[in-house]
């Protein structure tokens, strides 16, 4: 007996609309741009530079994300700024990564290769969100945000000190020597905090890494601050 499915043409049209979201996500560079936007609003120029893209290429990818309803735009003079369309897009992006790591065999070795999470790094201590909140309330740690300063301005963990990774070596004196440092960056797949902990430990500082980052912090509904 044939399944009753209603109007097949209308059903096909409906599923084609859903497919627009999947199509927009089906490109590595678009996902990288989306990853950057999980940190907060950015201009096309800064997104292009951060993703290593030409301006016209970045604009085309961002337009594809906008047409799929995943990002929104705001004009400021001659500049166009992009932002995530809503918390559900943050959840979708996070779930996409989790599904990939769970079900695509090649993801894990490439994650290990990118983050360098083997050898000494695989043995380093990590701090959970709950542990960080407890230690921060007790005043026993310095929370260090090593993302680019524009990302810190968009949203950061309350009380966090901003020292971008590329400035950390020259600004070590700004960090107290008598407290442990917990570094964080964009998310669980961000290499910046790993490299910051390596640098801090090589300088004789006590340092650990938040086992997640700003993406997971926001998804957890935890408080954030924005710079004036």
TrEMBL record:
Residue ranges of every copy of the Rhodanese domain listed in the record: 137-226
Pfam families named among the record's database cross-references: HTH_5 (PF01022), Rhodanese (PF00581)
InterPro entries on file: ArsR-like_HTH (IPR011991), HTH_ArsR_DNA-bd_dom (IPR001845), Metal_resp_trans_reg (IPR051011), Rhodanese-like_dom (IPR001763), Rhodanese-like_dom_sf (IPR036873), Thiosulphate_STrfase_CS (IPR001307), WH-like_DNA-bd_sf (IPR036388), WH_DNA-bd_sf (IPR036390)
Domain of life: Bacteria
Keywords linked to the UniProt accession: DNA-binding, Transcription, Transcription regulation
SMART domains, A to Z: HTH_ARSR (SM00418), RHOD (SM00450)
Domain HTH arsR-type, chain residue ranges per copy: 10-104
Identification of the protein by name: Metalloregulator ArsR/SmtB family transcription factor
The organism of origin for this protein: Arthrobacter humicola
Record lineage: Bacteria, Bacillati, Actinomycetota, Actinomycetes, Micrococcales
């Amino acid at each position: 007996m044939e399944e009753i499915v209603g109007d097949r043409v209308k059903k096909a049209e409906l599923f084609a609309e859903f497919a627009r979201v999947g199509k927009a996500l089906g490109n590595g560079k678009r996902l990288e741009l989306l990853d950057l936007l999980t940190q907060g609003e950015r201009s096309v120029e800064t997104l292009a530079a951060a993703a290593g893209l030409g301006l016209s290429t970045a604009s085309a990818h961002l337009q594809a994300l906008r047409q799929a309803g995943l990002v929104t735009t705001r004009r400021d003079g001659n500049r166009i700024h992009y932002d995530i369309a809503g918390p559900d897009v943050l959840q979708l992006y996070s779930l996409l990564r989790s599904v990939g790591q769970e079900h695509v065999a090649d993801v894990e070795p490439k994650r290990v290769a990118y983050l360098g999470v083997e050898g000494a790094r695989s043995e380093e201590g990590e701090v959970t969100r709950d542990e960080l909140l407890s230690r921060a309330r007790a005043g026993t740690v310095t929370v260090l945000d090593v993302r680019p300063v524009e990302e810190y301005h968009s949203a950061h963990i309350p009380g966090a000190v901003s020292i971008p990774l590329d400035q950390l070596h020259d600004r070590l004196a700004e960090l107290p020597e008598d407290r442990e440092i917990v570094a964080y960056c964009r998310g669980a797949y961000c290499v910046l905090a790993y490299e910051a902990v390596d640098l801090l430990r090589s300088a004789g500082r006590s340092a650990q890494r938040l086992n997640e980052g700003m993406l997971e912090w926001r998804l957890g509904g935890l408080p954030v601050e924005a710079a004036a």
